[in-house]
Amino acid sequence: MKGGYSQPSRARLKANDLFSKWTFLGPTTLLLLALLAYPIFYTIQISFSELNLATFAPKGWVGWDNYKDAITDPGFLNSLKVTGIYLVLALPLQMVLGFGIAYLLNVEWKWRGLVRALFLIPMVVAPVVAGGVWKMLLDPLWGIVNYVLGFAGIGPLNWLGDPNLAMISIVLIDTWRWTPFIVLIASAAMLALPKDVFEAAAVDGARWWHTLIHVSLPMLASAIGAVFVVRWLGAVKMFDIALAATRGGPGQSTNVVNLYIYEEAFRSLKFAESSAMAVIVLVLTMIMTMIFLRTTKKLEDRF
Amino acid sequence: MSTSTLTLRKRKIDAGRWFRIIAGVAICLGFLLPVLWMISTSFKLPTDIFTTPPKIFSTFTMDNYTSYMQQADIGRRMLNTVIVAIGAGVLSLTLGTMAGYALSRLNIKGGATIGVLILASRGVPPIALAVPMFLVARNLGITDMHITLILAYCTFLIPYVMWLMRSFFAALPKELEESAMLDGASRLATFFRIIVPISMPGIVSTLIFSIILAWEELLFALILTNRNAATIPVAIAGMAADTENGAMWGALTAVGTLTVIPVVIFALMVQKHLINGLAEGATKG
Amino acid sequence: MPSRRAILGAGVLAAAMLATAACSGPAKESGGVGTVEKPVEIRILANDGYAKQWQEQMVPEFNKKFPNIKVTIDGVPYGDQLAKTMLELTAADPTYDIVMADDPWIPQMASTGALLDLKKDAADWTDAGYDWNDFNAAPLAAGEWEGVQYGVPLRSNMLMMFYNKSLYKDAGVPEPTPGLTWDDYMSQAPKLVRDTNGDGKDDTWAVGTYFTRDPLTPTVWQTIFNANGGELLDGDNKPAFNNATGVAALQTHVEMLKYAPPGASTWQFTEPLEAFRQGKTATMFNWGSVYKGTAIDPKTTTLTADQVGIQVMPAGTKSSGAHRGIWSGAIASRSQNTEAAWKLIEWLSSSEGEVWQSNTLGVFPARTSTLDSTPEHEWLSPVFAALKDAYADAETGKMWRPRLTNSDEVQRILADETAVAMANPNDTAKALDDAAAEIDKALSK
Hints:
The structure holds 3 protein chains of 3 kinds. Helix content of chain A is 74%, strand content 3%. Chain A has helices spanning 10-47, 65-71, 74-105, 112-118, 121-124, 127-138, 144-151, 163-191, 195-203, 208-236, 240-245, 257-267, 271-302, and strands spanning 49-52, 57-61. Chain A has a two-stranded antiparallel sheet. In chain A, helix 1 runs antiparallel to helix 13 and helix 3 (74-105) runs antiparallel to helix 10 (208-236). By secondary structure, chain B is mainly α. Chain B has 2 domains: 16-61, no CATH class; 72-284, MetI-like (MetI-like fold). Chain B is built from 14 helices and no strands. In chain B, helix 1 runs antiparallel to helix 13 (249-270), helix 4 crosses helix 10 and helix 8 packs antiparallel against helix 9 (187-198). Chain C is an alpha/beta fold. Chain C folds into 2 domains: 29-157 and 325-373, D-Maltodextrin-Binding Protein, domain 2 (3-Layer(aba) Sandwich), CATH 3.40.190.10; 158-324 and 395-443, Periplasmic binding protein-like II (D-Maltodextrin-Binding Protein, domain 2). Chain C contains 18 helices and 12 strands. In chain C, the strands form 3 sheets. Chain C has a 5-stranded mixed β-sheet with strand order 2-1-3-12-6. In chain C, helix 2 links the parallel strand 1 (40-47) and strand 2 (69-76).
């Protein structure tokens, strides 16, 4: 608004500009600060203390003891390793599948909306139900998967009872559950691409993979990065499926770190020790997230 | 170019299109198989659920839907879940979308750091947050209320929304708001009148995602509510836990099936916004 | 970036709020049992497995006697119940007047000072006819810690042996009796794995029970261990299970996997139950409470009462076995309605309440007089007989989880190492040594 009055000073313009910018970021920052500051502070505080279970307040500073216990706890270290294996297997699989399916579904078709909506269902089924249903499906005695494989002369495979297969089964269930999320966001990102790019490429007779690598992927770089980071942060926290399907077993082979911390805190009531573990996981996650963000940024800049 | 080569090319494109449709539908069906098993289990008698060999169909019963439903207070819990999921979804979508826009376009000093910190706050295992949140809520006297759960859910939804929306905004051409701002529109007005409408596919998808996450959240719901605001996942977890008489798989799959329906209906309803994206919006604007 | 001072400030503020709340506890009042004009309201934090059943059937029955006590029961899933209960109990003005404690939980809850001493604090309100001595010692002891009675058994349960008489007959193996030893049982087990339809593949098996990584899995070999005279911890709370008796007990449990159906290594509570109900296993070690759904109710089982036997688990050198699993009702000491809360617990655990509950809901009683009475349902009679043996065995062999403030932690360590032994059957001794070392560390803190 340019009034007939005196020109507003540069400083004031700048202040107004700054204010309008912060209207966007301010509310979120304040809300999250208000909601998260104390819980995170509390977690850090009790990770250096003993916890009085009569009040759930810290009693007595114990320094780094809880951290020492955590990093010498073979169960905790093993759970970090298990989580690493799970992430390395699950994340790439889900990303490729998710974007692949989104690409397949990105055609004009009357029923496309219905297919996309149905694709959401695995994500909506409550984890305990999903874990239980998969357990029924994979059971060597009454599971339909082994029953069908039996006709092909395979099995019965002890999907959840064999240490190696159990991890694969967990990855399988998790992929079933979360690939739909990637499809959902990837579809939206593809819709935002200008259509004529594809049409032009098709009319030019460019091979589809040529279009994919030189046209689609660069334009999707930022979406791929964001989806990956969101999925990574979700996957690090996975424990419900492992709890429902294998209870972390057999042995300790699917005992992911969040399941371990959950059981330490809620089953063994070792809140102080589990807080130290939570802080360690937080720091590790932050470091990895920073690395991913850097990589994403580099990729975005390159295209 | 002769007409025959054009038809040939068109046919080729058509063939590719149908291949993609058929492959897409086939994969979708594959993903739905466990869901179909869940639905078929929900219509079985308990004694038919764990048979060898497995029975796909058995004596049809509605027992699981009728008898257990009232028992577990599903109606009120469903309503609570709807309130909390929509409340948390909409609130975090509004705040997160604006924050995402700030991060992708506004070049705020220190903004990038805040963005990264907000995202990284997701690294805290939820179990560590649930207990202190409960202690605070109890001291404020707001346990077992919808708003408490909505706010708790915002802590994990907003970072996701913010980051996803940031990537959608990053894909938009910069000229969009520049021309609007030159016309003298304020930032907020530009955002709501120009940016939001053309980002509909991203916004709708992110909203669906947020609502689903809030819809199925268990840990916070368990700790922060007792009765008045208790949600479906808590009921489901209770049913999944073994009773003294065995597990109630029939009832559990029935509730599992019921909780899926509202979300699918919601997704179908908002689907139409998934098509009106930039492709058309941009050329009009 | 948010300044550190801001975070600290918010933290201090919240911590201050916590502190004030913790100090401002109300003066203790019993609250009476209510009048028509001024009814009393009590709330119970229970397990989801029975919260609804109680709300709909037990509460109306209770209200016939105490119409002015309104009762609300909230259910929590088992896995999170202990943590949730601890959190709720720590409030200055607790939401719940009665909390339900699973067998090993009483020490943990009582150690915070949040539970009422029932024999002392509730003595004034206790009916003269309420006979504490009528309870079987084993179930009553679940509610006791360091000489104080904090809880009363409201839903009793025991880990017992179920057998399928038809499968025993088909296999030509004599039916189990309470005198059956573990040696007999294990030597008969191979004969109970059979191919009944002649297709070359086994289709019925000898046993089903807990095998996976679950806190209840070790209870199976713990019972074998106890039946052979072993005790998990010695008088100084030092691990006393990493010895020949312990290894033999765990070895027996691990060996059962050989005679169990494929996939049994992932089994916890439900799977062996469903397999048994489908007639797939000849025996099952599981909680007695599943009897009705296993032998009586055609909706849940393929078996009939004639086919299903129930008794104590096989005998070791000292006695037969049964592992205890009691839900005790306890009262929050800071509750303002302690008297009304006690009236409910008192009624439900009185002879009258127990008879009603076992006849109507099929819940197992803890009183000798109830077990000696003739139940309304015929099927309860053999169950009551087996329960009596089970209580006696549990009492002599101390067949329960450790009575410690960190009982669940100990049981979880045992579960972890049992899972290791299941996966590596040659490492049972090492698994028990590891468990002993970890438990020693946990207990010396």
